[in-house]
Design goal:
about 80 residues; globular
Amino acid sequence: MTTKQTRSVGGGSLLRRYEYDDGWVVAADVGVDDETIDVDTVGDTAIVVVEGDGEPTESEFELPGEARNVSVTNGVLTIEGDR
C-alpha cells in the first residue's frame, strides 16, 4: 500500500489517497452525520454535498480514476476504484 496524497479540504476534513496493486481508495473524514452527505461521481471527479444549517456546502475533488464503490460510514467517506 502506498499513501499518495494527504491534504486538508474545506472545514478541516482530512483527505487521503491509497494506491494498491489492484486498485485505489480515497478516504475523507467529513465529520458529519451520514444522512447529511450526498456523493456523486462523474468520470474521475467526486462531488460532495453536505446539508447543514442554512445552504448546502458543495466540494469537488479529482479521483485517480472512475469510482467503483462509494460509501459513508460514521462520517468517513470512502471511494474505491480499480487500476
